[in-house]
TrEMBL record:
<protein>
    <recommendedName>
        <fullName>DUF2237 domain-containing protein</fullName>
    </recommendedName>
</protein>
<dbReference type="Pfam" id="PF09996">
    <property type="entry name" value="DUF2237"/>
</dbReference>
<dbReference type="InterPro" id="IPR018714">
    <property type="entry name" value="DUF2237"/>
</dbReference>
<keyword id="KW-0732">Signal</keyword>
<feature type="signal peptide">
    <location>
        <begin position="1"/>
        <end position="24"/>
    </location>
</feature>
<feature type="region of interest" description="Disordered">
    <location>
        <begin position="146"/>
        <end position="165"/>
    </location>
</feature>
């Protein structure tokens, strides 16, 4: 009897885990290229939900859907515009960015920077397709990072990406 209860518990746990994984995968959606949304960065951990993904959700009013590799020029620009992304803000679980980090940026801030000529490069495979409501794919492609293998998901060695607060 105890073995049956144990096996039933294990089976239910596995079923719940698989269901949760499938649900999370479905929620992530697609990237601007129409394929599965990839991780932007896990070191530092980015994403509105701090899960590494630039997926737009209903509660993300800032629309943090653009995976970008920030530059000194962009960090200076956004700081002058009132959004300091280089200073850590621990109460927001925000480590502060440095050039080369990848971070999920607000689509409006990225577009503003593009219009000013200081937009950081974009990781298309990790940029949520929903940003195409506000910015054209061709414009994103003009700022795209050449991707290959898992190079688009910076994790640790050279820094990662972070999210527009």
């Amino acid at each position: 009897m105890h073995l049956r209860i144990f096996l039933l518990t294990v089976a239910l746990t596995i079923s719940a885990t698989l269901s949760t994984s499938a649900s999370a995968q479905m929620k992530r959606g697609l990237n601007v290229l129409g394929t599965e949304l990839r991780v932007c960065s896990t070191s530092p951990l980015t994403g509105y939900m701090r899960d590494g993904f630039c997926s737009l959700g209903a509660s993300d009013f800032g629309k943090h859907g653009v995976c970008a590799e920030v530059t000194e020029e962009f960090l200076t620009y956004t700081k002058k515009r009132g959004n300091d992304l280089s200073t850590p803000a621990p109460h927001y679980n925000f480590p502060g960015l440095k050039p080369g980090d990848r971070w999920c940026l607000c689509v409006s801030r990225w577009k503003e920077a593009a219009d000013a000529g200081v937009a950081p490069k974009v990781v298309l495979s990790a940029t949520d397709e929903k940003v195409l409501k506000w910015v054209e794919l061709e414009e994103l492609k003009e700022h795209a990072i050449a991707e290959g293998g898992d190079a688009e998901a910076k994790q640790g060695e050279e820094g990662g990406a972070k999210e527009d607060m």
